Amino acid sequence: MASNAAEVWQDARVVETIPLTPRIRRIVLEPPLPIPVAPGSHVDVRVHIQHAIDRRSYSVVDASRDGTRVAISVFDSAASRGGAAFMHGLEPGDHVEITQPLLSFPLRIGAPRYLLLAGGIGITALAGMATTLSAVGADYRLVYAGRAREGMAYLDELSQQHGDRLETRISDEGSPLAVAELVATVDESTELYMCGPIRLMDAVRRAWIERELPLPNLRFETFGNSGWFEAQEFVVRIPAQGIEVAVQADQTMLEALEAAGADMMFDCRKGECGLCEVRILALDGVIDHRDVFYSRRQQNAATKMCCCVSRAVTSTDAAAATVAGSRPARVAIDVS
Using one digit for the tens of pLDDT, what is the confidence trace for 284-319? Predict the structure, then answer.
């Protein structure tokens, strides 16, 4: 099991909960061991789901200067595995276990230009960066993409704070994000920071590579539950350990294997670090790669997968794959 010596868990008090949209709730926490919060930070939270305790990561949207108050925003998506329901049920006065702020998506100050790209709830990871860049007088643009205005949290506040540096791309209003056109506006000295669904991230990475822009200038954080296809139940087997378990649509392969007693390696649980990599021995179905660790070539080879986020599906046709009574996909893996 992975461990992080830098983690400090604490019992935080909920001081405020506010619905921002029909599916996004802002939650303000008061940690007993406050520290200053760097832009791009997140906190991990111990959530209670069906008599079990699990762990979820949430970006810090904003915080007081000394870290005595930390705000996160939680999206209750259709792909949620129960954490959002727990978080949305919190009320002022409740207590919840959280880590001190952790930084795995740091903002580098000093670039000539910045492009911040947020897809949906990905704005939570970038709002603090935009505030910091504004404060230091940096040359930046904040592009915020969403399906409908009413589902885009913090839109009014961001508009007031950033003025014409904020650009919205709203599909329902006839202005969807055109990734190739956006990346075409970037020069070699611009650093792009992005957070959003895997489809958006993949499209940006492909456009970035096609333009032969410097890869170190492309920085991102992704969602652990966003994928190419609808989540389905599938079966995973570890022949060497005699383990076979069904992975439900609302849980990850890693969670299912942990519950079955498998000794697994992992760290980020977001498909970014590759520590949870497993080797595919046999596959009846298709791998839905939800990571940002592998290249497109590695994903197409279908010889390995990041078990913290990626899944198996019976078909790449979501409608066909969810027909009642269809045989679930099956994958055999080696974790050594």
Answer: 999 998 887 888 788 888 899 999 989 999 865 444
CATH class of 113-222: alpha beta
234-334 adopts what CATH topology? Ubiquitin-like (UB roll) (3.10.20)
Structure tokens at 59: 């970006």
For residue 53, list its beta bridge partners. 48
Distance CA 54, CA 251 (A): 11
- Phi, then psi, of 209 in degrees rounded to 5: -65, -40
CATH, range 9-103: 2.40.30.10
Under 8 Å between Cβ of 10 and 31: yes
Question: SS3 of 126, please?
Answer: helix
Boundaries of every domain in the chain: 9-103, 113-222, 234-334
In the block, tokens 């966003």 appear at 226
Please name the residue that has the structure tokens 């019992």: 11
Q: How far apart are CA 245 and CA 329, in angstroms?
A: 12
Calculate the CA dihedral of residues 63, 74, 290, 50 and round it to 10 degrees.
120
Helix axis angle for 155-162 and 123-135, nearest 10°, is 20
- Dump pLDDT digits (tens) for 17-54: 999 999 999 999 999 999 999 999 999 999 998 777 88
Q: Give the three-state DSSP class for 329.
A: strand
Handedness of CA 180, 156, 85, 261 (dihedral sign): positive
